[in-house]
Design goal:
The chain is elongated, with a radius of gyration of 27 Å. The strands form 3 sheets. The protein has a 5-stranded parallel beta sheet, with helices on both faces. Strands 7-8-11-6-12 form a 5-stranded parallel beta sheet. The protein is α/β, with parallel strands linked by helices.
Length: 381
């Protein structure tokens, strides 16, 4: 059986052909859209993205030359250059099929078709299309998500042991996690550690700074948009929820999310489905949610600034990251890490930190936490 999410668009002006193909493909587990004309086929593709298009080359206006079908092939390629197109030709029209292949069709079948060959071609093209889209997702990940060389989580101090224990215990589960703590304590590193010990570690960890998104950009950033959804939407765009499918979505500064947008996030988390901005298709994802905040969300809930139902949906497990003043034992190792990094980046020779400097750094209260310590070392180097 094919993956039930694999969608085929079938375009043919003969009603009996459409019905026969629809029955065959649905029996084999495909989702099927049908169109009786080139114009209808293009409308279908704009409203319902698919994995492969199966199109006839001859339609009512010109039943023999294949011109309408070749024009449709070109329009589909303009609409989505990654969508594989398989053409159908009347028996004996090999020259027409060759011309379609020359113009970009991936394969062809002759009418009357052989069911097994047709199904084999469609399954192959679905897999190829999905492999191409996975490649595009990986490229987006490289741009957005996985920054190589992310520093490890340093947690040798007694104050950090409960954090490590919770990471080890809940990391392999799919429970949503809320990471709390002051600014600069390393909440994003805890999120990365959770992801790395989860069963989703080979899938993407997608980070969204919620506090940095305007209301106008929020839906497009998280859920994506379709071409033409608004003035600057020149092409379809994949949102962060879709990028994180199979992996972890890390929503940083979740306490900054305006009340007006919280219901949209809640709906997506509850149902694991959403629509792209301007789109009509329900997209289903399998995502684990990890959030972070420096606010006390319980107070925000009591003050009416944060939805109670969203709070409980996000706060299945809470991990509190202690401030640096409560974990002075970690300062020497953090110092060594930052000195090594910035010496390499700036091309400097640094021979460690003097005992007096170390003592002073260990006494300092660090209102800006680990981030402040890092800034001090960067300036010093």
């Amino acid at each position: 059986m094919s993956d039930p999410r694999a969608r085929v668009l079938v375009a043919d002006d003969q009603k009996d052909v459409l019905e026969a193909l629809k029955l065959l493909l649905k029996t084999e587990g495909f989702a099927v859209g049908t169109a009786a004309s080139p114009a209808e086929a293009l409308e279908q593709l704009e409203d319902h993205p698919c994995d492969v298009a199966l199109i006839d080359l001859n339609y009512a206006r010109d039943t023999t030359s294949g011109r309408e079908g070749l024009e449709l092939l070109g329009r589909i390629q303009q609409l989505d250059s990654t969508l594989p197109v398989v053409v159908m030709t009347a028996w004996g029209s090999v020259e027409l099929a060759v011309e379609a292949m020359r113009r970009g069709a991936r394969d062809f079948v002759e009418k009357p078709w052989d069911n097994n060959r047709l199904l084999s071609i469609l399954r192959t093209q679905v897999e190829l299309a999905r492999a191409l889209r996975r490649g595009q997702r990986l490229e987006l990940e490289n741009q957005l998500l996985r920054a190589e060389g992310v520093p490890p989580l340093i947690a040798e101090s007694p104050a950090m042991q409960p954090v490590l224990e919770l990471i080890a215990r809940v990391g392999p589960s799919d429970a949503n996690v809320l990471i709390t703590g002051e600014n600069g304590t390393g909440k994003s590193l805890v999120a990365r550690a959770l992801h790395s010990v989860s069963l989703r570690a080979d899938a993407p960890l997608v980070t969204v700074n919620v506090g940095g998104l305007s209301e106008g950009l929020f839906e497009s950033e998280l859920f994506g948009h379709v071409k033409g959804a608004f003035t600057d939407a020149k092409t379809d765009r994949v949102g962060r929820f879709e990028l994180a499918d199979g992996g972890t979505l890390f929503l940083d500064e979740i306490g900054e999310l305006p009340l007006s947008l919280q219901v949209k996030l809640l709906r997506a988390i509850q149902h694991r489905t959403f629509k792209r901005v301007g789109g009509t298709e329900e997209i289903r994802v399998d995502v684990r949610i990890v959030c972070a905040t420096n606010r006390k969300l319980e107070d925000e809930v009591r003050g009416g600034r944060f939805r109670e139902d969203l709070f409980y949906r996000l706060n299945v497990i809470e991990i509190r990251v202690p401030p640096l003043r409560d974990r002075p034992e970690d300062i020497p190792e953090l110092l060594a890490q930052f000195v090594s990094r910035y010496a390499a980046e700036l091309g400097k020779q640094v021979h460690g930190v003097s005992p007096d400097a170390l003592a002073a750094l260990e006494r300092y209260p660090y209102p800006g936490n680990v981030r402040e310590l890092e800034n001090i070392i960067e300036r010093g180097v």
